[in-house]
Amino acid sequence: MTEILVEDGEPVRKGQVIARLDPFTAQQRLLQNREALRVAEQALKRAQSLVKREIASQERLDQAELNLVQQRTALREAQEHLSRHTLRAPAAGRILLVHAEHPGPVAVTTPIVAFKADDAPWRASIRLTAAQAAAVDPAAPVAIAFPTLPGAEPMTGRVTEIARASEESGFF
């Protein structure tokens, strides 16, 4: 991770850059794939020339054509991989939480931000004790405040589901 360009609670536009990953390894892979494609194109030309002069077999030409297709595919994949090093907001919305505290190495499975699109409904799961769950009136409106949205008014909503049984911890 080289840059984190957003903060908790910040609104973002669709396509806005949120963060950038270090592109060095992906750029090196792209350069290697470009060179491998150049070599495959030369090998195909040579195989075509040799087959035309009846010095090489059709099998050699077929193999050179297959190699060229594989190298083109590898180059497209390397280009796609490099493009994913700039993280953009998938829609207009809000950054709920920045997980990455500062630029530095991140694992592939490490979340970088929590994001909520403006047009996506909110869904909250709340752990309640048995007594608290029994006191919930499913017909009553609810209001929820989010500390990560500074200055935001509490959001209103409704109860859509109450678990029928508690977790092992005793919470619903």
Automatic annotation (TrEMBL):
Domain of life assignment: Bacteria
Gene3D superfamilies named among the record's database cross-references: 2.40.30.170, 2.40.50.100, Helix hairpin bin (1.10.287.470)
Matching SUPFAM superfamilies: HlyD-like secretion proteins
Record GO terms (molecular function): efflux transmembrane transporter activity
GO CC aspect terms: efflux pump complex
PANTHER family for this protein: HLYD FAMILY SECRETION PROTEIN (PTHR30469:SF38), MULTIDRUG RESISTANCE PROTEIN MDTA (PTHR30469)
Protein name (database record): Putative cation efflux system protein
Species in which this protein is naturally found: Magnetofaba australis IT-1
